[in-house]
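P.,

For your records, the input lines for the assembly:
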Amino acid sequence: MEMMRMAGPADLAKQTRAWACYDCGKCTATCPISRVGGDYSPRRHVLAVNRGERGENEADGSLRMCLTCSLCDSRCPVQVDYTNLVRRLREISYRPDAQMECPHGGALQSMMRMMARGGLHQNRLEWLTGDMKTDTRKGHVFYWAGCAVYFDAFFQKLDVKTLDANRAAVRLMNFLNFTPVVSPEERCCGHDLLWNGDRENFERLARHNVALVRESGAEVLVTSCAECLRTWKADYAPFFDGKPPRILHITEFIAQHRSELKFEKNGKRRVVFQDPCRLGRHLGIYEPPRQVLRGMAGVELVEMRKSGPAAICCAGGTWSNCDRFAKQIQVNRLREARATGAEVLATACPKCQIHFRCAMKDPNLSADIEIEMRDIAELVMESLSNDGSAGQ
Amino acid sequence: MPAAPEKRSPKRSRLEKAADAPVKTAGASNGAVKGVTRAANAPAKRMRTSAKPGETAAKTETVWNPRIVVFACNWCSYAGADTAGVSRVQHQPHFRMIRVMCSGRIQPGFVLHAFEKGADGVLVSGCHIGDCHYMFGNERAAEQFEITRDVVRLLGLEEGRLRLEWISAAEGVRFAEVINGFTEEVRKLGPSPLGGKDVSA
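Structure tokens returned:
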């Protein structure tokens, strides 16, 4: 870990296969930002690394524009790991004393760093309601709630309701006779800090969170957030000593228990699914959410023109950048969703919800792009039939 | 300029005093807060003795001085602090003032950043509703403040550490009252759990 952090451009080129780049430019051609007119070129960063030039990449702030959606990685003919390259370059160029311009005035980064520092007794379980059975300490399944409670408070003016997904997930787990651990001691997973280059605070959060889950004795960790999932699965790996718990996205969890769920047929609803970049291209989880949606009696699953590995992301994953290009990407994506004739846009990540909701608030465009947006767990909970199913 | 209750040296230039007033007096004026009991878990570093040179150690009283960040709008609240200053109104000096053009500029990120850096209390101030120099900036400030307050509560910081006040340019006395009241409230709460050593930027 330490070695990788200190890696110079030559090591970086080796570790991320940047050396293999033959300058074809497919990355820049597929980049969602450059496709909507943004002056952003992944290829330029790759070439600068190959030339051993660090300065050029750091100087103009363009590193922070990358959505880290991995679309270019999936198109690269020589498998350059550009997403990781950008993350490393951000880590190398990170200066704690330099204030970067962050969307939302850096408020979200401040929250994350406060959590990283510790000493706070957060009120993060306020969203639980009386009908939910949870445990704050020990249990077989840990429900990783993520920062939805903060998102709903911070984006209250946008009517963001990411907590509905959490509530649905917990109710669904109760329905399947699980009493998940939901801990007040949970802290931000550190995903965004890591992708902003702040490895020090990320590691602090990682150590705390890994210890917390280990103490709970949980063998399975379930989360509704695609970014938390990626962090737990890929980035926390070095922090486990011993066997890590099984880490599942809520859609994977539902897919595993499909046979125990019975759905009521209450009319046909056309649903289109937005693949979160973390769930899809980062972790390769494409099928479980679709299995769940197809398995529901009242749902007809349709696909956008760009879906699965080709899906366009919500353009705001790591709170590192937000501009007119991000907005254009969101608007295009929502138009694509509307073009399928779907009534509902199903999501599997709170960030998708937030960013699409923000785009829909545009008074000039809302008529064209507004669409009902729900988390998959919510859709499942709504169409469950209460009679004869396991658990109740 | 906000008034500082310390005795000013006549040798210092007016300009120098003006530049220093909100910052330097925070730690330096010790006699002003005599009689306040010590906060239970106050770190030793920020304790000051209020003993005067002639007094014995037994009489020494220690108080903890909070670090407070005050955001003030250019047109009302900052001018209100000025009024307090030119009127020689005495008030607690343990705050750092940050002037913004309008309270509408004070977004949650500002306040959260102050807490992140270890502020024990944050006061957001602006023109009275209806008096905003930019028509409705303070209404925007109130909206933003609502969000900030909710997030601060979720983070587990006490509600008393954050306050919104409307102070006009004429209300020098009120400025002093608000500052005194808020300083006392924060002093009772004790140091912020995020205070102490500065970990991150």
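Two observations worth noting. The radius of gyration of chain B is 17 Å. Residues 106 and 141 of chain B are 6 Å apart (CA to CA).

Regards
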